[in-house]
Amino acid sequence: LSVSFTFGMMCTENDLPYWIAVLISMTNLTSAGQFAGTALIIGGGSLVEIGITTFVINIRYMLMSLSLSQRIDPDLSVPKRLLMSFGVTDEIFGVSMQAKGQIQAAYFFGLMTAPFWGWALGTLIGATAISLLRSALGIAIYGMFLAVIIPPARTERSLVWVIVIAAVISCIFYYLPVLNQLSSGWVIIICAVLASSYAAIKW
């Protein structure tokens, strides 16, 4: 609810209608990918740039889905599998993998309900409350990302290096004369691919 609240505020701050913000949340359910994709839409990014950026950011869901496919009921129909795939997020995946035995469709759909409606409702509230909380927008977005990366970085040294490398590369693209002409979407793609590739080779 709190993160989607920030997303709703970001959309309204950039003159997107509140119903567009809610529609994006109800059809994406992707958190970081949704923020990045919408930021590129607002900034006038190309369809290719938006597609590649969201693909790179959300590629982890493929790995989660592969893992989840080994645990679900093998008799589930394709339509049910497709609907379940829509709800594969970090939190839903984490909780579902703790279930004992095979994961049934009814259990997974029940697990999806609160996050889906919470994400949509938070977006609606944030989009309509922007006039009251406009000054908190910038701080809230940075706070969200810090809340995501700090806890695991305290125990995983490799993650610390990934964060540092990504930050250094980002600064290079921001300050160097020629490189700072590149759009933010491509910078995100390059930072993510280079930092994660280094970690994959090193560890």
List keywords for this structure.
single chain; 203 residues; mainly alpha; 12 helices
Walkthrough of the structure:
This protein has 203 residues and is mostly helical. It has twelve helices and no strands. The chain has helices spanning 2-13, 18-28, 32-42, 47-58, 60-69, 78-86, 90-96, 105-128, 130-133, 137-153, 157-175, 184-202. The longest helix is centred in the middle third of the chain and has 24 residues, at 105-128. It starts with a helix and ends with a helix. The model has no long low-confidence stretch (mean pLDDT 86).
Topology summary:
Blueprint (H helix, E strand, L loop, with lengths): L1 H12 L4 H11 L3 H11 L4 H12 L1 H10 L8 H9 L3 H7 L8 H24 L1 H4 L3 H17 L3 H19 L8 H19 L1
Helix pairs in contact: 1-2, 1-8, 1-10, 2-8, 3-4, 4-12, 11-12
Multimerization state: single chain
Task: Indicate the radius of gyration in whole angstroms.
Answer: 18 Å
Elements, N to C (H/E): HHHHHHHHHHHH
Helicity, as a percent range: over 70%
Count of DSSP H/I helices: 12
N-to-C span: 35 Å
Return the structural class: mainly alpha
Main sheet, how many strands, which sense, barrel? none
Number of strand segments: 0
Q: Using the alpha-carbon principal axes, give the shape.
A: globular
Which stretches are poorly predicted, pLDDT < 50 over at least 5 residues?
Answer: none
Mean model confidence by pLDDT: 86
- Tell me the fraction of residues in β-strands, as a range: under 5%
Brief synopsis:
The chain is mostly helical and 203 residues long. It has 12 helices and no strands.
